[in-house]
Amino acid sequence: MFREFDAGATGLDTAEALQRLERYGPNRLPEAPPRSPLMRLLAQFHNVLIYVLLVAALIAGAMGHWVDTIVILGVVLVNAVIGFVQEGKAEDALRAIRNMLSSQAMVLRDGGHVSVSAEELVPGDIVLLQSGDKVPADLRLLRAKGLQIQEAVLTGESVAVEKGTDPVTEDAALGDRLCMAYSGTLVTHGQASGIVVATGAATEIGRISGLVSQVETLTTPLLRQMAVFSRRLTGTVLVLALAMLIFGVLVRGFSTAEMFMTVVGLAVAAIPEGLPAILTVTLAIGVTRLAGRNAIIRRLPVVETLGSVSVICSDKTGTLTRNEMTVQNIATVEGLYTVEGSGYIPRGGFLLEDQSVEADQAPLLMQAIRAALLCNDATLEQKADDWRVHGDPMEGALVVLAVKAALEPKMERQQHPRTDLIPFESEHKFMATLHHAHDGSAIIYLKGAPEQILARCAKVQGAAGEELPMDAERWRQRVEDLASQGQRVLAVACKPAQAHQQELDFNDVEEGLVLLGLFGLIDPPRTEAIEAVAECRTAGIRVKMITGDHAGTARAIAAQLNLENSAEAITGHDLDRMDDAALSARAREVDVYARVSPEHKLRLVTLLQAQGAIVAMTGDGVNDAPALKRADVGIAMGHKGTEAAKEASEMVIADDNFATIVHAVEQGRTVYDNLKKAIVFLLPINGGEALSIMIAVLFGFTLPITPVQILWVNMVSSVALAMALAFEATEPETMRRPPRPANEAMLSGFLLWRIALVSALMAAGVFGIFGWASTHGSTLEESRTYAVNTLVAMEVFYLFSVRYLRAPSFKFDQLFNSRAVLIAVAVAVTLQLFFTYGPVMERFFDTRPVDFVHGVEIIALGMALFMILELEKLALRKWRRKHGGSRCSPGRSEAKS
Ligand code: ATP
């Protein structure tokens, strides 16, 4: 095998690996080429309304209205370009987050273990696998220990298969090639190493899937719902328009040509053409902002779900705590040792019951520390003054302890080489190793959760090398004492083995062990997690800690974090004894769950969901996948998490920090608010315009705004203004209101009322100024120009109003605190000035310059709309206060004051 790939048992060297990378190319599946820009631009025209407009342009041309034809085509083109640019931005956002999730592989290079990007693997590399990893390339296994791999992506079989190193016949079917690990499959159990035999497109998965299509559409249930709404509205409007055409020609006696353009105007007026694009951009910006705060979205719909999360179930270690462990106490039969120093700097002395001791003068202490060092996979590295741990932080802390005790890790490992191991898995909660010393003696070391270790120990190691009888109760009490101080407790034991024993299995560590001592490690809560827990409380979100750690430790940390209920804890053992009804009742009250296994997590999520909670759940291990999938928001840890957990989750937290989850919820609420604001902003503009046209036709009035003018307002001004809402920052009150009920309709009674009110006010403004001007000496063209400008002025003022749906918008600092809004207004006003005073526009849109007095009137009407809405907000707030602002009051979720 090595010869075939010109590789050695110590792996490739970096130079060779680089050369091979050139030769074989990166280890990634070839992507389908992205859509060409031309295709993307053309796709912008694939829309019912655009078809209607193109037909209208054609008919207008046929009827000799060339100017209208040019205007319609021009506006359609501008709209397509805006859509094209926005879509490009949205796709860029998605691509960027995809790149943040590239996976890593542990490989042997230059004789040492290094973690490299999976894309850098080349044939001949030796890759190490452990449970939870996604196999990064096709591997021929060289060593396998309890290895099980789930190959569903290749074979469709979801039960994991056991793998080994024995060769199989060449014609074995894919599922029977037990000495191979294939790219894209998941390691569910055990450890292994293998040599890379194929990468990228040459792998089995590469051959099956051919090109991977990386195109993911930027959508969520709400966006889909709005798209359906838009389509239905379009259909209804088209039918209505036809009815109006008939009504206008037959009843009102308008000419068909005149009516045709009116009807096109109605269609343009009533259809919210800009809405889907704005919503997509809002979502893309939300996803980008989340990524900027370390929350990487894997499945887009979760952006919406985040906003309604009502329970967060979080791991403790590393998420709520810092995962920077330090051994603080060691308990042996001699008493309780205290270790000085903190962090990973290996400096600090030892005290026994307050008396300073030299570690090398205390043989039992040294024996326990040596066991903890050898039954350990972590390494400590010094770079200048910086000490860094590679591997599990808790194991790292034990290495630091060993160095404090003047042990030399490298030398110890050479003198007591490891022959075999049982790796740590959270189901059995211990790790065991078999060592042979040079004198031929063999020993087994075991370290793990005290319950697991104490149960296996018949004796305790005495200070002078003698073995004492085990007083299990006393040791249990010592565990409780350390745990109640928030320390994470580990027990360490040993057992002599036969010199010829080369393999270690579970039977060897079932019983007959000798307890060496207990280690108490501190892992303080993250400061930002304490703040985030407090924030959850005001935001109506319950935080539950679900940990594999001891109940006493978990309760102590919960108290430091100020969880709502840190006094009680349910253990995995209790969970097993409770039926669903009992657990469901307790789960409402209890916030600390200790010594739980992944199956318990699944049960808890299911029960909490049955109570109507929207549950976010964190996870990192391979067995957490079902609970992560089941949760409404499955969250995997970026550093600590296995690939299996990441694959099962909706979101990955790059910094493993609880505070990031809470930020993500806040951002989720913001995105939802902004989507809502965009809808509440755009719909009344369509409503106002459609109302104006319908009233004119029904009552036989002259149209106050021409169809092409409406086209201008909707496809240029409105889009420019609404875009600002996508950038709206989080409102200060966002995390001071309860979560949005998951089944809440987007358009609540309050929002429907607001849309109807603003529609009516806009129609009134347009008709008001048009009627007043045309009866007071203005020409038809002038009156229409005033009407269009009034509509846009109202839009501008409405934009300021809609930024705060319920709270007053009339606060100086709030009016001008958004750069996006100010830019959007500047753009809209400039365009409007050009529209009104530009000689070209006069030809195309039949506009006339607006004089000063009318200009003031127009702005006054815009302001009037703003003031009326402020009064309405005030009245509603008063009403709410009087009626207690009950949960069911309209628009509760936008509650502000
Ligand atoms: P959380 O679920 O909050 O991350 P946790 O890290 O304590 O908590 P597990 O990783 O399942 O959960 O660990 C459970 C227990 O197993 C620990 O409390 C510890 O006693 C023991 N343990 C953890 N890591 C190791 C290890 N590398 N070797 C031996 N025992 C370990």
Automatic annotation (TrEMBL):
Which cellular components does GO assign to this protein?
A: plasma membrane
Q: Where is the Cation-transporting P-type ATPase N-terminal domain?
A: 1-65
Tell me which InterPro entries the record gives: ATPase_P-typ_cation-transptr_C, ATPase_P-typ_cation-transptr_N, ATPase_P-typ_cyto_dom_N, ATPase_P-typ_P_site, ATPase_P-typ_TM_dom_sf, ATPase_P-typ_transduc_dom_A_sf, ATPase_P-type_domA, Cation_transp_ATPase_P-type
Record's keyword terms, sorted: ATP-binding, Cell membrane, Magnesium, Membrane, Nucleotide-binding, Phosphoprotein, Translocase, Transmembrane, Transmembrane helix
Q: What Gene Ontology molecular function terms does this protein carry?
A: ATP binding; ATP hydrolysis activity; P-type sodium:potassium-exchanging transporter activity
Provide the primary localization.
Answer: membrane
What residue intervals traverse the membrane? Answer: 41-60, 66-85, 233-254, 274-292, 679-703, 709-730, 751-774, 786-805, 817-840, 852-871
Give membrane topology per the record.
Multi-pass membrane protein
Subcellular location per UniProt equals: Cell membrane
Listed under GO biological process in this entry are:
intracellular potassium ion homeostasis; intracellular sodium ion homeostasis; potassium ion import across plasma membrane; proton transmembrane transport; sodium ion export across plasma membrane
Q: Which Gene3D superfamilies match?
A: Calcium-transporting ATPase, cytoplasmic domain N, Calcium-transporting ATPase, cytoplasmic transduction domain A, Calcium-transporting ATPase, transmembrane domain, HAD superfamily/HAD-like
Which PROSITE patterns would you find in this protein's record? Answer: ATPASE_E1_E2
User: Which Pfam family is an annotated match for this chain, by its short name?
Assistant: E1-E2_ATPase
Query: What family does the Swiss-Prot or TrEMBL record give for this protein?
Result: Belongs to the cation transport ATPase (P-type) (TC 3.A.3) family. Type IIA subfamily.
**This chain belongs to which protein, by name?**
Carbonate dehydratase
Organism equals Marinobacter salinus
Q: What is the lineage of its organism?
A: Bacteria, Pseudomonadati, Pseudomonadota, Gammaproteobacteria, Pseudomonadales
